[in-house]
């Protein structure tokens, strides 16, 4: 058995810019939750069969082995189960996926729409990669398959159920200028198991414990188990475990547990994996005759049109948290009025409403700034009403991230308890 050797991350990972690490540490819990909600790339699943005897290794050595891994070729089957505890919205979620979002625009094959399916339930994926420019991910359904394929500058997505396709191209000028090339998955989401693990470890700070906790067999391969968890109490996150291939350092499995217990929030890993060069045909795609093809620019225009009056609010909620955690774009105040209360796993982001505007209040009169009673009732059903010296508001809960939305337009969000959010709002008032 491998030793239970601990490596604390107070000194940080050498070579990482101090400013970047400081920003990441501010919101470690949300970073982990963002990774969990966006586990849509070549992320791993379940398949443990016994605990192999492996040479002893320290946590620091295992982290270095992950960072040094240069494996870029693989193929296999992935199983991912996600339970964020988000209230079911009946057919509303399906309408967003099939209808292209709130505005009703967009293609059903658009990755920005379809990848949200992996935020809940259990899914089986087939994945393949041959270097940084060739990747394929397929979500398997009972009667259909959704595939996302990247081959150089070309990205195709195809939904066999609706016979719709999505196409994007990265032009050479963008690549020559150093801009990011087109990515096969929504930006902010990890594209490989290695990226997922590295984001998690990079965000770790002095409030984090990192240990090697035994070994495992994943997809028929020997692996070490790296466990990352908070030293602080009060976080909604219990631990994150990464099963790391003992031979090549590739993360094979990722499991995220809530501090409240229960089944994993995210349990994702390979059930089969092969590190040989995948067949080149996996990365080629030609739309079948009769397929409805949507170009990326057209899909973007449809999304923008669908946002309607919410566009400015979305932009306003966009800049305050940029760079703090994956997928943070779209979650901050336009004027930068965001600050972090506390640190580490108990960090809470306080976000001011754009322009200092308060939220609409309950009411139904047309032409007023009041929220219709029906809308207020729906909003209340998704959260808990709370009061304090700050006034009143609603706490919206998942198994990981909770958010307090005050009636005067402020937001307090973090992977902490409801009481911690209320206390933070009271202290800030």
What oligomeric state best describes the polypeptide chains here?
single chain
Report the strand count: 21
The CATH class assignment of the largest domain is Mainly Beta
* N- to C-terminal distance: 52 Å
Structural class: alpha+beta
Q: Would you give the CATH topology of the largest domain?
A: outer membrane lipoprotein receptor (LolB), chain A
What's the total helix number? 11
Instruction: Give the CATH H-level superfamily of the largest domain.
Output: Lipoprotein localisation LolA/LolB/LppX
Classify the beta-strand content into a percent band.
25-35%
- What is the CA-atom radius of gyration, in angstroms? 22 Å
* Largest sheet geometry: 13 strands, mixed
**How many discrete domains?**
2
Average pLDDT value? 73
Which residues sit in consecutive blocks of at least 5 with pLDDT less than 50?
1-6, 8-49, 88-106, 172-192, 307-336, 363-368
Please bin the fraction of helical residues: 10-25%
Q: Supply the CATH architecture of the largest domain.
A: Clam
**Strand adjacency order, main sheet:** 1-8-9-10-11-12-2-3-4-5-6-7-13
Described by the principal axes of the CA atoms, the overall outline is: globular
